[in-house]
Amino acid sequence: MKKGVLLVNLGSPDSTNPKDVKRYLGEFLMDERVIDVPYWFRAFLVKGIVLNTRPKKSAEAYAKIWWEEGSPLIVISERLTAKIKQHVDMPVSLAMRYGKPSLQTGLQELQDQGVDEVLIVPLYPQFAMATTETILVLAEELRKKHFPNMQFADLPAFYNKKEYIEVLSRSINEQIENLDYEHLLFSYHGVPERHIRKSDVTKSHCKIDGTCCNTESAAHQFCYRHQCFETTKQVAEKLNLKAGTYSTSFQSRLGFDPWLKPYTDRTIERLGKEGIKNMAIVTPAFVSDCLETLEEIAMEGEEIFHEMGGKEFTTIPCLNDRDDWAAVLSGWINDWAQVAAESHVV
Question: pTM of this prediction?
Answer without folding.
Answer: 0.96
